[in-house]
Amino acid sequence: MPEETTESSRPTLEAVAARAGVSRATVSRVVNGGAGVRQPLVDRVREAVEELGYVPNQAARSLVTRRQGAVAVIIAEPEFRIFSDPFFEQQVRGISRELTARDTQLVLLWVEGPGDHGRIARYLDGGHVDGALAFSLHSDDRLPALIARSRVPAVFGGRPAASGPAVPYVDCDNRGGARDAVRHLVSLGRQRIAHLAGPRDQTSALDRIAGYHDVLVDADPELLCQGDFTRESGARAMAELLDRRPDVDAVFASNDLMAAGALRTLRERGVRVPEDIAVVGFDDMESVVRETDPALTTVRQDIEGMGRLMVRLLMRLLDGAADAATASVITETRLVRRASA
């Protein structure tokens, strides 16, 4: 039988220091993510760690760093949305990769309904994580208040609702991206441009509605149809729009899933895209765009990159290098032209 590994047989900080030719204190700073160590020494310590198979003692590490080495990722959507919408997959992938690079564990929590708020509050209050990342918030969501009461540093994905104290967040230029989409359709000579809107209890959808109206100030209210960011709602809204306004000649959908649903309805109705109706989406999610026929013109936001930015901003808050009331990031968007418009 293989020899059992014991606590005493595991490589120690002293062994790593001897292998790297540095002091124990230097090894401790490198292993615990401290600053003030020159890069050549960092490289030597990491090489020694890998050669010896050194694994930090998490309990001892927590005493030194006063951190748990874990971050809660809270998604304010039910489970079926999280696993059916590729937006969440991309954002969590960006978060996961950035946390992994920082040797930090991701703890995924989602909100099926108001009954989950107490469970999440108790978890945050229990001191299990160093910080929290929360996204897909709704205007009536209690999560921001619960997170604030827990005093756990947090960064939000998406601009929170205007009420309440300022909180750090990462978002894209939703309003500017919507303006670009509608201006593109106007440049094509389209005159009856509709908008398939996202849920009005989320700021991203409201900002995209505002961008639509920035360009089409006097847009006919009948050209605005309500959806909820799902493929099914896009298909349903497109059908309602065609029944109500068969003269529509362009559509700006609030996200790619709704645009894909709209394209399905147009195909079923025998409407040619873009000859009869041009279609533009928002997100540029590869898994959706590669399945659309014709290829979808859309507004690109760097979803995975925004997840990485959320982690970086949270780490700055934890290190005291950012002001929670003002540390927010707005990323750029750009129109990606393809066959649908």
List the helices and strands and how they pair.
Layout: H1 13-20, H2 24-31, H3 39-52, H4 58-65, E1 70-75, H5 79-84, H6 86-101, E2 105-110, H7 116-125, E3 131-135, H8 143-150, E4 154-157, E5 169-172, H9 174-187, E6 193-197, H10 203-215, E7 224-226, H11 231-244, E8 250-253, H12 256-268, E9 278-283, H13 286-289, E10 297-300, H14 303-318, E11 329-331, E12 334-336
Parallel strand pairs: 1-2, 1-3, 3-4, 4-5, 5-11, 6-7, 6-8, 8-9, 9-10
Antiparallel strand pairs: 10-12
Helix pairs in contact: 1-2, 1-3, 2-3, 6-14, 7-8, 9-10, 11-12
Description:
This protein is of the alpha/beta class and 341 residues long. It contains 14 helices and twelve strands. The chain has helices at 13-20, 24-31, 39-52, 58-65, 79-84, 86-101, 116-125, 143-150, 174-187, 203-215, 231-244, 256-268, 286-289, 303-318; strands at residues 70-75, 105-110, 131-135, 154-157, 169-172, 193-197, 224-226, 250-253, 278-283, 297-300, 329-331, 334-336. The strands form two sheets. Strands 2-1-3-4-5-11 form a six-stranded parallel β-sheet, with helices on both faces. The chain has a six-stranded mixed β-sheet with strand order 7-6-8-9-10-12, with helices on both faces. The longest helix has 16 residues, at 86-101. It is elongated and about 75 Å long. The model is unreliable at 1-7 (pLDDT under 50).
The main sheet comes to: 6 strands, parallel
Helix count? 14
Radius of gyration: 24 Å
Low-pLDDT regions: 1-7
The beta-strand count equals: 12
> Alpha-carbon distance between the termini?
67 Å
| Fraction of residues in β-strands | 15-25%
Broad shape: elongated
- Identify the strand order in the major beta sheet: 2-1-3-4-5-11
Structural class: alpha/beta
The string of secondary-structure elements, in order, is: HHHHEHHEHEHEEHEHEHEHEHEHEE
Helix share bin: 40-55%
Output mean pLDDT: 89
